[in-house]
Amino acid sequence: MMIDLNKEKLNIKDKKITLYKSTDKNAPLIVFNTFEGDGEDVYQALQNMGCTSINLLVVGNIDWNHDMSPWYMPSIYSKEKSFSGGADEYLRLLIDEILLKAKELIEGEPKFTGIAGYSLAGLFAVYAMYKTDVFDRVASMSGSLWFSNFIEYCKRNEYKRLPDKIYFSLGDKEANTRNPVLKTVQDKTIELSEYFKILGSEVIFELNPGNHFTDTILRSAKGIKAIL
């Protein structure tokens, strides 16, 4: 059964934005940065899980290796682009323009605002808490926490706001790789989840069956559900 979607489509600075609006007043607002598509499959999965009181703000057409990376890092594969460190610039656009517009369109004032993402967008979601106090909750699904010096950055710097809930997940086969950088992902994800626990956040860490590309829609929805 398809649910009648109360959705708005917007274009802001070449980003393609889809806002799935709740009919409830003051429903939470969750930002989900996506690699492709408009997030409808994730929204439907959330509805099927009973998460109906949610405003889901999906941002697409992202320059993935630029907008989601906190600083420069050479590519981990020979044929791919380097990571060019555009996260600060994109975060300003997200907060100053995209989020402001979304808040005008939803019913009431969101009970809380969260940020969620898969892969590099999961890295970006964690990085955002060091740059802005806008987000109350964070979900990082199969986050690229192997990113060069990222764990060190988190431990050395002061967050702008410690989220009251942080969710991390990973596929149980993600660390089974020959790539020396990607190999570290499980250790680093566990290390970071323990660190935020010590700081006092409610942290959930979940291992899912499969590799990085298994059940991405379901895993994304599960992560968002966990912070609602």
From TrEMBL:
Pfam families: Esterase (PF00756). Keywords: Hydrolase. GO terms for molecular function: hydrolase activity. InterPro entries: AB_hydrolase_fold (IPR029058), Esterase-like (IPR000801), Mycobacterial_A85_antigen (IPR050583). Gene3D superfamilies: alpha/beta hydrolase. This is Alpha/beta hydrolase. It comes from Lachnoanaerobaculum orale.
